[in-house]
Amino acid sequence: MTQANKAQAFKNMHTTQNPVVLYNIWDAGGAKTIVDAGSKAVATGSWSIAAAHGFDDGEAMPLEFVLQIVERIVASVDVPVTVDFEGGYAVSPEDVAKNALMMIKAGAVGINFEDQVVQGDGLYDIEQQTTRLKAIRHTADSMDLPLFINARTDLFLGSDPKTHSSLVDEAIEREAAYSAAGADGFFIPGLTDTALIAKITAATSLPVNVMAMGDIKTSADIAHVGVSRLSYGPGPYFNATSDLKERYSAI
Fold first, then answer.
1. Nearest-angstrom CA–CA distance, 46 and 119
2. What band does 109 get if pLDDT is binned at 50, 70 and 90?
3. Which of 58, 112, 117, 126 is the most buried (most CB within 10 A)?
4. pLDDT given at position 223
5. What does residue 236 show for φ and ψ, rounded to 5 degrees?
6. pLDDT tens column, 132-147
7. CB count, 10 Å around CB of 113?
8. CA pair distance 76, 164, nearest whole angstrom
């Protein structure tokens, strides 16, 4: 398939009837392994890629290094590849768009793009983040690529679950703005209360992505609440390194 065909195929995988499951990997070997196991798409995880190469998460790893890894992953599998783009490795819309263009040229057909201020405090306000999203959308359109932009909000990740119900309205507001700016999906990592997830999916138009955390372990755990995508974040890396340590310790 062409890159554009892969992008469209990836978009079509996002359905509430059969949520796409993305078991996030960090290198070409991992990508080939999960594709051989039956995965129809590959997703990277920023924490996992960084840790696997001796860096901290949060754009501490040089973008040029990330792009090399993405190129190897794309060259190693014949399925859609979506990349954890973090905050775009830049602040200004112009620089974010330039970096998105390099990610597209590396072969990605999708990106996660988060609204937290990486290496800073808090979240971008809605106007700032929508401007950044629009710049990415314009760049992808100029390349005739239906890039799947998974707009991630960090309202819930790392915050007290007791506050999550009070954040739902802002999440819905952000989804509407991100959708209007050209996003294709809405990612709400950290939210594990299925009743609150259902409230968001009922009030939003974009396919909703949740992360496997807490009681959410498989697609069966979220199939009834209108979610279209389940990803595993750094979980697979934790499992792999834990297994490696145990096997060495048993020698």
1. 14
2. very high
3. 112
4. 86
5. -60, -35
6. 999 999 999 999 999 9
7. 24
8. 40
Using CA atoms, how far apart are residues 151 and 183, in angstroms rounded to an integer?
6
Distances in Å between the Cα of 139 and the Cα atoms of 3, 144, 170, 182, 192 are 15, 9, 27, 11, 33
Distance separating the N- and C-terminal Cα atoms of the chain: 45
Phi, psi of 84 (to 5 degrees): -75, 105
Regarding pTM above 0.90, the answer is yes
Q: Residue 142: is it exposed, middle or buried by C-beta count within 10 angstroms (0-12/13-18/19+)?
A: exposed
Q: Which residues pair with 231 in a beta bridge?
A: 22, 211
Residue type for position 183: A
Token pair for residue 192?
Answer: 């594990």
- How far is CA 105 from each of CA 3, 6, 67, 71, 192, rounded to the nearest angstrom? 10, 14, 9, 9, 35
Q: For residues 155 and 123, is the Cβ–Cβ distance under 8 A?
A: yes
Q: Is 76 left (phi over 0), alpha (psi -120 to 50) or beta?
A: alpha
Cα–Cα distance between 237 and 251 in angstroms, integer?
22
Q: From CA 156, how far away is CA 163, in angstroms rounded? A: 9
Show the DSSP H helices in 14-53 as ranges.
28-36, 46-52
Name the maximum alpha-carbon separation found in the chain. 56
* Token pair of 201 as six digits: 């999916």
Phi/psi at 116 (nearest 5 deg)? -75, 155
How does DSSP assign 86-129, residue by residue?
TTTTSSSHHHHHHHHHHHHHTT-SEEEEE-B-TTSSSB--HHHH
